[in-house]
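INFO  loader      accepted 1 record
INFO  loader      residues=258
INFO  predictor   begin
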Amino acid sequence: MGLLSNRIARSNLKPGDHIYSWRTAYIYAHHGIYLGDDKVIHFTRRGQEVGTGTVLDVLLVSSGPNRSYIPCPTCVPREDAHGVVSSCLNCFLAGGILYRFEYSVSPALFLAKARGGTCTLAVSDSDDDVIHRAKYLLDNGFGCYNVFKNNCEDFAIYCKTGLLVLDQSTMGQSGQAVSIIGGPLAAVMSTPLRLVTTNIYGMAATAVGVYCVSRYAADIGMRRDVVKVAVEDLTRRLATGVLQVLEPSLPAAPPFAH
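INFO  predictor   done
INFO  writer      dumping C-alpha cells
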C-alpha cells in the first residue's frame, strides 16, 4: 500500500477487506467485500457494472477487460436479480489487478491520491460487522443500481462503515462518482477566473484546487448528510419505500441531456 498505488497481493488479503479492480483503462473500478477463501460479495446491475442509462454505459462496458465465456466451476449464478452477488476472486477481478481500498487516511494522503475511489477519511467498523452487512445484503439486496447514487463502491463503503446518504437527490458515497463529475465541475467553476488571469498554468492550478476541495468535501468521512443505519433497518427502509434509489432510464433527448 503506498502513495501511488493500493495494489495488494492475494496472500495479504483478510476477510472484511474492501477490494477493487480497475476496469475500462482506469476510468472505472469495480468494488466488493472480501469474505476469505477466495470469495467476494459485490453489487452489480444484474450482472453489469454500470447503470447510467446513457451512452456512457456502452463506453464503460465495451472498454472493459475481456471476460471468459467458459463457465466458472465455483460460481453458481443466483436465481434472484437484486444485484448483490457472491463470486470467486478470479471472477470478481475479471482479469484485472487487485487493489485494497484504504480507510482512516489522513487529509494529506487523501488529497495526494488525486483519483477518487481509492481511499476515504472515514473509519471502518470491525471486520465482523463488515462481513455481517455484506452477507445480509447478499440475501436481502441493496436497492436498484445507480452509477452516481447507489453503485458498487457505495455498497462496499456502506458494508465497511454503516454510513448512508439518506437524501438520494444528492450524490452517493462513491468517490469515483465524485471524480467523474468533479473534473468537469472544476473546469466550469474555474472558468470565471479567466477574468483574473489568462495564464494557462494558473487556470490549471485553480481547476485542480477546485477539484481537490470538491473531493474532500464530498468524502463520506467529511459529509454531514450521512447517518449510521443498521443493515436490518436499511433493508426494511428499502422494502417499505422509505429509502428508494430509482433505476436510471434512457433519456428521450441526447444521451447526456437531463
